[in-house]
Amino acid sequence: MHFASDNTSPVPPQILDALIAANHGYAMPYGTDAIMAEVRTMIREIFEAPEAEVYLVATGSAANALALSVLCPPWATVFCHRNAHIEEDECGAPEFFTGGAKLTLVEGADAKMTPEALRVSIAHAARAGVHNVQRGAVSITNATEQGTVYSAAEVSALADVAADYGLPVHMDGARFANALMRSGASPAEMTWKAGIDILSFGGTKNGCMGVEAVVLFDPAHAWEFELRRKRGGHLFSKHRYLSAQMAAYLKDGLWLKLAARANDAATRLSEGLAAHDSARLLHPTEANAVFAAFPREAHRRAHAAGAQYYLWPMDCSLDGPGDELLSARLVCSWCTTDEEVDALLAIVRGD
């Protein structure tokens, strides 16, 4: 019963096989390998963006921070949700890679900014000229850190607000595939057609060993991105091992199939918890993460049986009244089985 995170899962055999195949013989370094050319073509076709530039890095934090560094100068601010990954889980990497740009936190239910809240935050910034940080960029996390999804229309509405102030828009798509499968939109509709300038296109949380793509829909930023990636220590010498993962991930729609499995498992878990009288959902389950509260005694049973997941917040204690509700985050991966889900639900019910 592994629900701690989707990045605890194993790697699908298609990706491992691709790595083994890439390991034969020699290949040119630093992103000039032949497989990377295939990746670039595939991503351009998937996103209907023939002019897009595509770069690979090994971590989501690097993808986000490097992307924002070409959109936001040090004296400006990035507008993002209070629960955005760049705010909560990247140890100041965006501030570091931008050279000190600020993060301005925008409120909104279920980790989703609203156009109205974003407009208020942007309008409030830089009101004293040189004495304030300036308006820099907007960053949207999709799927969000609370398991919800922005539709293409919602992304477009936020991007329209940014455009009113001449601001570029970044999307943190660590779980982009999960969001896409929920939304029913095409990759292009969810990104550049909705006003996204740069996408951090996740692979690691959806089955890859460790690779993320940064997709620059405006190629004017490409050379600066290349320099920043090199200067920041994120240009791989043996780049073919990143390329091989991403190529296998994209081939025959594997990335969408993996995300669909994870989403389906989360839906099964969410529906099972919602049907239990002593449990309640904290946020809508729209991707592959479930946020729910159920009695402390049920948590004790689950942990004793070896279930892995995080109490949320993580400093909650299993000590205390057994009937008190404790919140939890449970994340499904591409290989979460119905049997795992049903076993956890049986423990929560006390079967």
From TrEMBL:
<protein>
    <recommendedName>
        <fullName>L-threonine aldolase</fullName>
        <ecNumber>4.1.2.48</ecNumber>
    </recommendedName>
</protein>
<comment type="similarity">
    <text>Belongs to the threonine aldolase family.</text>
</comment>
<dbReference type="InterPro" id="IPR015424">
    <property type="entry name" value="PyrdxlP-dep_Trfase"/>
</dbReference>
<keyword id="KW-0663">Pyridoxal phosphate</keyword>
<keyword id="KW-0456">Lyase</keyword>
<comment type="function">
    <text>Catalyzes the cleavage of L-allo-threonine and L-threonine to glycine and acetaldehyde.</text>
</comment>
<comment type="subunit">
    <text>Homotetramer.</text>
</comment>
<dbReference type="Pfam" id="PF01212">
    <property type="entry name" value="Beta_elim_lyase"/>
</dbReference>
<dbReference type="InterPro" id="IPR015421">
    <property type="entry name" value="PyrdxlP-dep_Trfase_major"/>
</dbReference>
<feature type="domain" description="Aromatic amino acid beta-eliminating lyase/threonine aldolase">
    <location>
        <begin position="3"/>
        <end position="291"/>
    </location>
</feature>
<dbReference type="InterPro" id="IPR026273">
    <property type="entry name" value="Low_specificity_L-TA_bact"/>
</dbReference>
<dbReference type="InterPro" id="IPR015422">
    <property type="entry name" value="PyrdxlP-dep_Trfase_small"/>
</dbReference>
<dbReference type="InterPro" id="IPR001597">
    <property type="entry name" value="ArAA_b-elim_lyase/Thr_aldolase"/>
</dbReference>
